Amino acid sequence: xxxxxxxxxxxxxxxxxxxxxxxxxxxxxxxxxxxxxxxxxxxxxxxxxxxxxxxxxxxxxxxxxxxxxxxxxxxxxxxxxxxxxxxxxxxxxxxxxxxxxxxxxxxxxxxxxxxxxxxxxxxxxxxxxxxxxxxxxxxxxxxxxxxxxxxxxxxxxxxxxxxxxxxxxxxxxxxxxxxxxxxxxxxxxxxxxxxxxxxxxxxxxxxxxxxxxxxxxxxxxxxxxxxxxxxxxxxxxxxxxxxxxxxxxxxxxxxxxxxxxxxxxxxxxxxxxxxxxxxxxxxxxxxxxxxxxxxxxxxxxxx
Amino acid sequence: xxxxxxxxxxxxxxxxxxxxxxxxxxxxxxxxxxxxxxxxxxxxxxxxxxxxxxxxxxxxxxxxxxxxxxxxxxxxxxxxxxxxxxxxxxxxxxxxxxxxxxxxxxxxxxxxxxxxxxxxxxxxxxxxxxxxxxxxxxxxxxxxxxxxxxxxxxxxxxxxxxxxxxxxxxxxxxxxxxxxxxxxxxxxxxxxxxxxxxxxxxxxxxxxxxxxxxxxxxxxxxxxxxxxxxxxxxxxxxxxxxxxxxxxxxxxxxxxxxxxxxxxxxxxxxxxxxxxxxxxxxxxxxxxxxxxxxxxxxxxxxx
Lengths: 303, 303
Known about the structure:
2 copies of one chain form a homodimer. Chain A is α/β, with parallel strands linked by helices. Chain A folds into 2 domains: 18-177, NAD(P)-binding Rossmann-like Domain (Rossmann fold, 3-Layer(aba) Sandwich), CATH 3.40.50; 184-302, N-(1-d-carboxylethyl)-l-norvaline Dehydrogenase, domain 2 (Orthogonal Bundle). In chain A, 52% of the residues lie in helices and 13% in strands. Chain A contains 15 helices and 9 strands. The first copy, chain A, has helices at 3-6, 27-36, 48-56, 65-70, 82-90, 95-98, 113-125, 138-143, 155-165, 180-208, 213-220, 228-239, 248-265, 273-284, 295-300; strands at 18-21, 41-44, 60-61, 74-77, 104-107, 129-132, 135-136, 147-152, 169-176. In chain A, the strands form 2 sheets. A 6-stranded parallel sheet of chain A has the order 3-2-1-4-5-6, with helices on both faces. A 3-stranded mixed sheet of chain A has the order 7-8-9. In chain A, helix 10 packs across helix 13 and helix 13 runs antiparallel to helix 14 (273-284). Chain A is elongated, with a radius of gyration of 21 Å. The termini of chain A are far apart. Chains A and B meet through strand 9, helix 10, helix 11, helix 12 and helix 13 of A and strand 9, helix 10, helix 11, helix 12 and helix 13 of B.
């Protein structure tokens, strides 16, 4: 190819170079989707095999978050919890060390909203932009690029990130300023956890009272008790199918984020408190790798 | 009209004579719907005005439950709670005293499922049939004949009752044997109450964390947190509209039924327990006449 072919055609600027940090269960398929969408990609992760896989698929590898940042226009992080994100972005040799003025950092992990605001503020001081963009939809959503993405950002930053997010998900909503995506995710996990517990209690009550739980579930789907959880997780409970899905130990992590946030902003979550306890009980009972609908087992197996 | 005209045409037997006991907020419009559907109706109620209204609309009045039963093929009861139903059907001068062999009793109140089974068993000893058929859909559903009706009965009794129930509601499901309708209703109220509390906690958390709750609600309706409650009661909460709907004090009554049943069959309802406490708190705070979505006020007004 000649020199002319290497120049982007007028009106079609070269796609931004993306750095991706955290190639776990979710991050690995998301990074692959970015490659498939044609983005030049640099990756970094704690474990070697997914890095090798991504390199084989066409990505570059970098040795540190700062190295990822210095070679990228946009850095995406997909990490387990708040301290991981703070360490990778703000810590020694972190993203912030390699950040240039125009860098956009998109954290897609589920973390404490106040942590997200801290990270966003620190990056802003260096002239870099930050979006919190936690997802729901699980491993399958990551693989099929059908994730729901809840975004906290300024409108211009959101618009800059949108084409990239569209390579990863489908239902992409700007909730509010930085941190708002994480707040929405916390609200989501609160409602999902509480509803799973309620459905588990109701179906167990039906069974113990001598009534077929499947019939109760069907009847209730036609009324005010209808929910996506009654429909999908209710069916899992009836089938005794607790293969994840979304692991109970991750929902416990999210429950701690929810409770920390509630405590920070002064809301008592009387209804959610026992749900968090049940998730802890699942993990303590070595059931943390099961789907969160396994809350049903704790209710059904009692007495 | 001649004598011949008073005979039902062949193949169209005369409609059963119905007795209706309990003309409260729900019972009054239900009885009117039965009259409109062409059923000969005898009514009885504690307070006089709705009796007068029904008589003006074409019903007969009777002085006691036994008098209602002796003039009817089918008796429907719509009463506040388990003891009321037991007194009206099994007590002195009760339905059972006027019951003939072919009598069908349909209790549409929301009561303890084990109470329903006791009533059904006592009637069966006298050769009378019993259905428990609690409803959901509230006053509007009663007025518009769009109630959801959850039925516990034998199949022949269900089939005998069905045309009558179709004059009162739309979504009519046979759940199982006698008592099963009440079990399904208890499960419904458990899930509805717990979901209202979860939505109230989530929307309050969003607001306190500085994020617009309406945006969070909209975003969450697209994912796993979706429910009829998030949709309808979530909107009530955002609008601060707590006109019933379904009164908190009635949900508290149902909560006691749920907890009594759970205790009787040995299920611990860890998640529902604080929801029942919150409903008690609403009633104690003179908010029991508000819609049950007023649980939001308890969460939002704290701190």
